[in-house]
Write a structure and sequence with these properties.
18% strand, Dehydroquinate synthase-like, alpha domain, 11 helices, Rossmann fold, 2 domains, alpha/beta, 11 strands, 343 residues, two-stranded antiparallel sheet, 7-stranded mixed beta sheet
Amino acid sequence: MRQVTVPLPGVSQDRSYEVAVGHGVIGRLDEVLRGLMPAPRRVAVVTQPGIGVEVATSLPTHQFEIGVGEQFKSMATIQELCEGFAEAGLTRGDVVVGVGGGMVTDLAGFAAASYHRGIPVVHVPTTLLGMIDAAIGGKTGVNLPQGKNLVGAFWQPSAVLCDLDTLGSLPDREIRCGNGEMAKYHFLTGDDLAALDLEARVARCVEIKAEVVASDERESGRRAILNYGHTLAHALEIASDHQIAHGEAVSIGLVFAARLAERLGRINADRVAQHLEVVGGLYGLETDVPHVGSADELLALMFRDKKAIDGLTFVLDGPNGVEPVVGVDSAIVLDVLNEALSS
C-alpha cells in the first residue's frame, strides 16, 4: 500500500488528508471513519446500481443510489440526495461516503458540501479515472444543459481509499477513460507513467495532482493545468450527447490542444508528434476529432467552458510547459477545428 498526503493547511487547522492506494484498502474504511474528528455517528453511502463494491462499517448506514448516465449528474439528483439525508435525520455529525466512479464522487461531494452547509465526505473511487483524478482535490459539481460541471463547490474529502481490486472487473472502456487522464499527467510532468506498475502509477498520478492542488486549491491560477485537453473534451461530450465518455474526449482534446499550440507558435511539429505517440501509441487512445458537430458548434460550446473568463481560454503546451492561455483567437481555433474535421 502507498499513502499520499494532499497538503492543505488551513487558517485555524490543518486540512490535509490521506489518499491510500493499494489492494484491499477498502477494508480500512471503518478505521478511517472512526478516526475522523469529530467521530461520525452515521454513514450515508452514495453509490450507483451495478458498481458491485460493498463497503462495510460498524456505524449505522443509510444507502442512496443515483441513476446511471450523465443525465443524472444534475441539480435534481443533488436535491434528491439532500432530501434523503434529511429524511434519514443526518446531521453535521455524520459523514457521506461516495463509492463509485467520477460521477458518483462528484455528486456525493457536492451533496456533502451543500447539506447543512457542509458535512464530511470520504471517497472510495472504483474506476481508474476516479482514483487518479475525480476523487482527488475537492472539485465537485453537476452539469447544466449549457455545459459540463457549471454548478458545484470546492469541498475537500476527509480521506480517499483507492482499492486497486475494484479495477479488476472494469470494462475496457473505463480503463481507456482513465488512461485519457493519465496521458494528461504524462505531459504535465514528462514522467513515463506506463513504465510503472499499477500501484505506483496510480500513486504517482495522485502525487502530481496533490502537488498542484496544494499550490492552488480553488483554481485561481496554476490548478487550471489539470484541465489540459478538457476545453475541447467537454464540448465533444456535450455535442455527442455524452456518447463520448470523458476520458475518451480528453485524449482527443490533448492532441487538438497540441495542434492549436503549434499553430500559435508555442511548440513545434516534433512536440505534436510526441503527443500523438503518447496518446495514440503508448496508451492506444483516439486522437482524431470525431464528427459530432460542426466546427462552429464546437466553438460555441467551448465559449461556455467554465475557464472562459475573457474569451476562449485553453490550457496549452509551450516553452514554459503546460499553462493556461487566456484570450485565444477564436478564428485560429476555428481554423484548426475545421482542419481536424476535414482530415
